[in-house]
Recover the amino acids of this structure.
């Protein structure tokens, strides 16, 4: 029952992300547009490119969707509204989201097209830049919560949200989450206007619809993970827990989508060097600071 | 819920997602099939097949980072169990991991000084 409710909410959330993304890119707030786009994609031809690697080409969109759905399964909206409260929840989110990389490289390799291939390999470089900045801030969160249970992580923030307790970790995680969801300015792998869509270039019709759905679910999952790890999850005054979760998740999504709109796309060389020269030393410093704070205030 | 049941549920989610995608494909197939026309299946490379094959080896210009990444990724595997028991163990845990991280960080600085942190 809970599972069904949460899957419906996830689908609804993905729809709202589509509305917000449309709003952020075109400046028009239209509630019905994503539905029409989805119907149009269903009706269009789904062309198979010449001499593809058929297995990779077919598996990639599904794998993207599966990895996002599995990561969403361990994220709580209220103390009880969670699909499965896995004992290794915080680690499982990482494990599930690594398959985004696999899916994108499959989508790059599969269609046997130059632009797609470059987009796929680019994401491998992008992973080397952002991956540590996902993992290290989560470690600091876990140190405070003394547990990998996502519900326990939210409970540990009852007195003070992690965004105040470890602001450096929040900033790093937020940027890395945007890079993981290949949102602008980190959309090196799709890069409209530069790679003609990159990994999306050869997908059309219903396959493209599944690919885009996977990405929308990925965005809302990452926003929800940010809320759980740093913004106190369901906690907040006056309103019921589910309302706080919804408000926070949508706000984080909107900021993620809007932030990239005013920035130029980052070059991969810069992304790599900035992440390793500034990001990782800062993430290590964050772990050390949280370590000291946890010991002092225990 | 037991651990096995939890992983069973996750497996069920995976199977269910595959089912959803397959039913979407079936729906699209019911609406209409893609017509085979010449030139339609050419990948997006300016309307003609690319001169060179695509599935070749590319220069991984980030290999310096990639080697460092392997070291750090292994380190993170140790840090999750450490992070869970950190508060119980206390200061000893901070010092232990501090030494470990300091060595890794020196490695990062050494790599930096040798020019590993740039696109080759």
């Amino acid at each position: 029952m809970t599972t069904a409710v949460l899957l419906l909410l996830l689908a609804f959330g993905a729809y709202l992300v589509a509305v917000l993304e449309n709003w952020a890119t075109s400046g028009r707030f239209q509630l019905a547009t994503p539905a029409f786009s989805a119907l149009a994609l269903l009706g269009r031809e789904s062309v198979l490119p010449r001499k593809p690697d058929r297995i990779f080409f077919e598996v990639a969109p599904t794998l993207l969707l599966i990895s996002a759905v599995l990561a969403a399964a361990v994220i709580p909206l209220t103390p009880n509204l969670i699909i499965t409260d896995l004992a290794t929840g915080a680690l499982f989110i990482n494990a599930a989201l690594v398959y985004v990389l696999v899916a994108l490289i499959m989508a790059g390799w599969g269609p046997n097209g130059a632009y797609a291939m470059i987009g796929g390999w680019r994401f491998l470089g992008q992973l080397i830049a952002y991956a540590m900045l996902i993992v290290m801030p989560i470690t600091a969160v876990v140190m405070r919560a003394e547990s990998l249970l996502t519900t326990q992580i939210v409970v540990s923030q009852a007195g003070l949200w992690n965004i105040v307790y470890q602001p450096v970790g929040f900033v790093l995680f937020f940027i890395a989450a945007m890079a993981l969801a290949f949102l602008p300015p980190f959309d090196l792998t799709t890069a409209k206007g530069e790679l003609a869509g990159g990994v999306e270039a050869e997908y059309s019709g219903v396959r493209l619809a599944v690919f885009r759905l996977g990405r929308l679910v990925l965005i809302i999952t990452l926003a929800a993970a940010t809320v759980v790890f740093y913004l106190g999850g369901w906690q907040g005054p006056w309103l019921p827990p589910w309302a706080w979760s919804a408000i926070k998740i949508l706000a984080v999504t909107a900021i993620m989508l809007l932030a990239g709109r005013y920035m130029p796309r980052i070059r991969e060389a810069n992304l790599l060097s900035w992440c390793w020269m500034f990001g990782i030393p800062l993430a290590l410093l964050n772990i050390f600071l949280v370590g000291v704070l946890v010991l002092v205030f225990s | 819920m037991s651990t096995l049941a939890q992983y069973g549920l996750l497996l069920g989610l995976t199977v269910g997602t595959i089912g959803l995608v397959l039913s979407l494909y079936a729906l699209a197939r019911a609406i209409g099939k893609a017509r085979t026309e010449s030139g339609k299946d050419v990948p997006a490379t300016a309307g003609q097949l690319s001169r060179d094959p695509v599935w070749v080896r590319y220069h991984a210009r980030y290999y310096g980072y990639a080697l460092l990444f392997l070291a750090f990724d292994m380190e993170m595997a140790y840090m999750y169990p450490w992070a869970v028991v950190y508060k119980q163990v206390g200061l000893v845990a901070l010092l232990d991991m501090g030494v470990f991280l300091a060595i890794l960080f020196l490695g990062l600085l050494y790599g930096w000084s040798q020019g590993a942190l740039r696109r080759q």
